[in-house]
Amino acid sequence: MKNALLLIGTLCVIGTVACGAQDSFTDDVPELLQVAERGLVVQNCTTLTASSVITSGSEAGNPATNTLDDRLDTRWSSFGRGAWIDYDLGSERTVTGAAIAWHLGTTQLNNFILTTSTDGMNYTQVYSGTNSATLAAETYTFPARTARRLRITVFGNNLNDWASIAEARVCGGSTTPPPSTALWRGDFETGDRSQFSSAQMVSPDRLQVLTSPVREGRYALKVTVKQGDNPIGASGNRNELVRMTLEPSGSEYYYRWGTMFAPDFPSPATWQLFAQWHHTGSSGSPPVEFVINNGTLRLYCSSTEVWRAPLVRGAWQDFVLHAKWSSNPSVGFVELYHNGQLVLPKRSCATQFSGQLNYLKVGLYRNSTVAPVGVLYHDGWVMGRTLADVAPQGLSAAPTASEFATASGE
Questions:
Q1: Which of the residues 178, 323, 365, 372 has the least number of beta carbons within 10 Å of its own beta carbon?
Q2: pLDDT for 400 beyond 90
Q3: What was the pLDDT predicted at 3?
Q4: Residue 253 in domain
Q5: 176-203 burial string, b = 16+ CB within 10 Å, else e?
């Protein structure tokens, strides 16, 4: 496929912003110069030709058309979280993914989403993720859908708030679809934590992927928190995994997972979070959070308790959260299934803060006054658009007491 992706005569409509020179960005990078002559090579992607490309803004000298020139030593760049680049296919096509080569991709891990549109006004999120550490093009697939436009929106990277893409192509036709209609899986069946964007932990033993006990499949996550665990220098004690889901305002999703609390899991009269959809801001309680407090499980939306149930230890608890994300309390809602039963019909509430997005945090985050060691397990995280997308498959029975004791090591 070498040099097969040169696109000629591409129309570019660009909004320019004055954002200054990019610190740490340069094209004089040996790795880039070595690969530049090879052109763009993609895998698992039948490319669709874009008729035009627009952006939210471009750095001077790094326009959007650089992402279509079949060269890895040029780029589109724009500063600021939420910067986007948008490809118009000229007519409605069957779209199944995007192939993206990230500038400085070996060192900068970008948090991004893909959205599609038929009319250029209404967009639907179809993918969220973080790139691998590579300069090569990666193909990100999603269930086939009809669309005219595909937009890549970048919410900064691990080093700064620049968005910078060397090459990008819209995929369609014969791209191999994912094995299910789920948008994302965090079921630990990779045998590690790589399905999540990052980890906030004091040491690897606090977030261990184990083969027993499991709720489904072969692996589950054991979470341990001890008093004083504070990996990010913030309030409370925690060890958590982060998934940059970045749900847009107005979007609607289902999330399924299982959690099991150790037989000796402490539950004093104070807060402990085991799942939360945190806002992109830096202060305040998250818009949606699952909490253990004084022997009860509780769901909060906008700091208001909307559901509670007794804490059960030593057995898997199954959850399905259905949420519409909006800062408008008359638009946003949460709905909850617990252990296969609808326990909370749609409850209107503000599930986002104005002007902010959410992201998922899984693990245990608790008041620093809690002294006993806390151990719990997570398994089977999956995100989809419908209840059928996240339907459980092959759930196992609850573990035996001997399995639990061996796995927990407490």
A1: 372
A2: no
A3: 35
A4: yes
A5: eebeeebbbbbbbbeeebebbbeebbbe
